[in-house]
Amino acid sequence: RVQLVESGGGSVQTGDSLRLSCAASGDTPTTPNSYCMGWFRQAPGKEREGVAATTSTGDINYGDSARGRFTLSRDVDKKILYLEMSDLKPDDTAMYYCAARGAITRDLMFLPEHWTNWGQGTQVTVSS
C-alpha cells in the first residue's frame, strides 16, 4: 500500500499563492513514473473534484478550476508531487487530497472512485 502525506496548506488572502506537496512512501512501484498521482479537493457540502493529475508517462491534465492558475509537477526521484497554486480565490477553499494509483485512462482520471490510495488532506482557506 502507498502512503501519501500532504503538506503546504494554509490560510491566505485572495490573489496569494501556495505550494502543496505530497510525499509518497511505502509500497510504491520500484520503477519511477510507473504510477499516477493527482490532487483532488473537497469543499464543505460539495463532492470531491479533480484538480490536476499526471499519468505514469508524465501526461498532465488539469480540471477546469485549475487550468491557467495551478501547475502540477513531480519529483520522480524524491517521489513528491507538487501543486503550485497562484491567484487563489475564495472558491478554492477546500481540503486538498493527494491520490495515487496505477495506470489510468484520461477519461477516468478525475473520478475519485477510481483512485486507490489517498492522503489525509491539507486544508487551504482563501479569504477575500
Defining key terms:
single chain, about 130 residues, mainly beta, seven-stranded mixed β-sheet, four-stranded antiparallel β-sheet, globular
Number of H- or I-type helical stretches: 0
Largest sheet: 7 strands, mixed
Evaluate the radius of gyration: 14 Å
Our measurement of the CA-to-CA distance between the termini, rounded to an integer number of angstroms, reads: 40 Å
How helix-rich are the residues, as a percent range? under 10%
Structural class: mainly beta
Order of helices and strands: EEEEEEEEEEE
What portion of the residues fall into strands of 2 or more residues? over 45%
Inertia-based shape: globular
The overall average pLDDT, rounded, is 91
Kindly state the number of beta strands. 11
Which spans of ≥5 residues are poorly predicted at pLDDT below 50?
none
What does this 3D model show about the protein?
With about 130 residues, this protein is mainly beta. It is built from no helices and eleven strands. The chain has strands spanning about 1-5, 10-15, 20-25, 35-40, 50-55, 60, 70-75, 80-85, 95-100, 115-120, 120-125. Strands 2, 4, 5, 6, 9, 10 and 11 form a seven-stranded mixed β-sheet that branches. A four-stranded antiparallel β-sheet has the order 1-3-8-7, with no helix packed on it. The chain is globular, with a radius of gyration of 14 Å. The model has no long low-confidence stretch (mean pLDDT about 90).
